[in-house]
Each structure stands twice: as C-alpha cells, then as structure tokens.
Amino acid sequence: MFRKIVLTAAATAVAATAAFAGNSSKDIVDTAVGAGNFGTLVAAVQAADLVDVLKGDGPFTVFAPTDAAFAALPEGTVENLLKPENKDQLVAILTYHVVPGKVMSTDLSDDMSAATVQGGEITIDLDNGVMINDASVVDADIAASNGVIHVIDKVILPSS
C-alpha cells in the first residue's frame, strides 16, 4: 500500500535533528513546528482538533511521520483525510501514532507491543534498526516538555 521512501527522506529527517536540539522546553506541537519537517503532520493535528491535547501535560510519546512519509501515501490520501467529513478517520490515524507516557528508545525491547491512544497496538522490532510496525525510526528521543518524539519514515495505519 505504501511506496518506498527514497533515502533522501531519511537524510532529510536526520538533518532535522539540528532543529530539535535543545527544545525540551517546548511542547510536542511546538517542537514539531520548529523542526520544519512536519508541516503535514501539524496540519493534520490542527484539522483533527488535537493541538490542545498534544500541548497538554502528557506525557506522550509521538511516532511522528515526516512530510516525506505523508507524501509517500497514495495520491489524494492526505487531502481526503483533511476533509471535515473524514475527521474521525484522521483522529484514529493520528492517535495511532501516540502512546501514553514517555517512552525513550532505551525503554524499547524487541517484539514488544504498546497500546496507542487510538486503542490499537503497535509492535516494536529491533532486528533491523528500530521498526514501529513497518516504519523505521530515523531519529529518536527528541525531548519535549510534555513527552518525546521519535521520527518515523512512514505513516502507520491502525487495523480496521
């Protein structure tokens, strides 16, 4: 269902690390905005009315897809999800990328699963780097005042 993301997407995400440096005083939303590589994610969070939630006390762990990850979805997918009539589906997808609590990379173990805010479970695989379902973590442990962000290279979708 997803096209492979080219290596430049990973390089771009890694380059965003510099923008994250020292942002632990900013919340998850402001940290993502400041990075400059999450415009689609931020727009989706706004369309889903989740900004106040992700600016809340938390803590939250967000597996944040880059703009390139959203661009790799089939054509028209993002535009469809941003329509008001598809808000419930958008909320489900976005909250599937969020785990309650602050989960650092050192807290992960191979083949563990974690319950998401959406209600589904994600699976962590450490055999070939760090994988969250079928997405690779390209940058980890980006501190925010109310949690942590791990950058991923694909949008992960909950089971229907």
UniProtKB/TrEMBL annotation:
Keywords: Signal. SUPFAM superfamilies: FAS1 domain. Residues 1-21 form the signal peptide. InterPro entries: Adhesion/Biosynth-related, FAS1_dom_sf, FAS1_domain. Gene3D superfamilies: FAS1 domain (2.30.180.10). Transmembrane segments: none annotated. Residues 25-156 form the FAS1 domain. GO terms for cellular component: extracellular space. This is Immunogenic protein MPT70. It comes from Falsiruegeria litorea R37.
